[in-house]
Design a protein that fits this description.
Layout (H helix, E strand, L loop, with lengths): L6 H5 L11 E4 L5 H10 L7 E4 L20 E7 L6 H19 L5 E3 L3 E4 L2 E13 L2 E11 L24 H20 L6 H10 L6 E5 L4 E9 L5 E4 L5 E4 L5 E4 L1
Parallel strand pairs: 1-2
Antiparallel strand pairs: 2-3, 3-7, 4-5, 5-6, 6-7, 8-9, 8-12, 9-10, 10-11
The structure holds biotin.
Biotin binds next to helix 2, strand 3, strand 6 and strand 7.
Length: about 260
């Protein structure tokens, strides 16, 4: 019998210090990002997690929609890190998502700069981080994570060829619950290493499929072709251009394609 998602099924017995000690499960939400922001205003503690059984207005980076019908994972983690911790959040989230999928299924994941988790080159998970920063103080950071667990990608023409889903044929609620608990545990382990993010950066850097490839970085204002040479500890990507110079690309508003 598959276990349903619920506040207590997610949080009870979870061996974490911070992340997921408290969780709020909703059958349906517009977006867990907005629900998390409301919880921040109510003063919830760090590590609180908002989970939606489905989202009706899920969003991704670059103002894209994120489809999350029932059967998938949509959650947001509320954090109050120091400013110096912010660059590591995407690394922590990416590593935790990849780890949780691999530890619960027999699937192999790849991490694509800046925020995609892939299986066989197709997107299975994405991460959206929204921060409020005042001066040099982080008021909050909300780390949104979406994982396609049971998504019929063919039903969505916009992502049919680029997205994939775990679809392992196991009880889907059970699979979701296991992945969420593994994800929160790994996120907690990595987050507690801060402010020393060196080992997080190194693990993330070494997991990226992006490095060593020719890529095209596209933003609103420009398109840059180059060789993905390295990433630095702030999360930026160094592209070697054809003239031999290096351009530093910041994740912000950029999409990256292999060439
Ligand atoms: C992306 O790849 O562009 C990021 C996708 C992030 C989706 C997650 S699902 C949970 C949280 N709520 C949202 O509305 N978006 C994020």
């Amino acid at each position: 019998m598959a276990e349903e998602l619920s506040d207590s099924n997610v949080s009870s017995g979870l061996k974490t210090t911070l992340i997921g000690r408290r969780s709020f499960y909703y059958h349906a939400l517009a977006s867990t990002m907005d629900a998390a922001r409301i919880k921040v205003k109510q003063g919830v503690s760090e590590g609180t997690v908002i989970i939606a059984g489905e989202q009706t207005g899920g969003r991704g980076r670059l103002r894209r929609a994120w489809v999350s019908p029932p059967g998938n994972i949509a959650l947001s983690i509320i954090l109050y890190p120091d400013l110096t911790g912010l660059p590591y959040l995407i690394m922590i989230a990416s590593l935790a998502v990849a780890y949780s999928i691999e530890s619960v299924t027999d699937l192999k994941t790849q991490i694509k700069w800046p925020n995609d988790i892939l299986i066989d080159g197709k997107k299975v998970g994405g991460i959206l981080i929204e921060n409020e920063v005042k001066g040099n103080r982080v008021v909050y950071s909300i780390v949104g994570i979406g994982i396609n667990v049971d998504l019929k990608t063919n039903d969505y023409p916009g992502i049919a060829t680029s997205a994939t889903s775990l679809k392992t044929g196991r009880g889907k609620n059970d699979l979701r619950l296991k992945i969420i608990r593994s994800l929160l545990t790994e996120f907690d382990r990595l987050y507690l290493k801060l402010p020393d993010g060196r080992s997080i950066y190194e693990a993330w850097r070494d997991s990226l499929v992006t490095l060593g490839k020719r890529v095209r970085a596209v933003s609103n204002t420009q398109t840059i072709d180059g060789f993905a040479e390295s990433v630095d500890e702030t999360g930026a990507l160094n592209l070697r251009l054809d003239d031999g110079s290096i351009t530093r690309v910041i994740a912000g508003d950029v999409t990256l394609r292999e060439k």
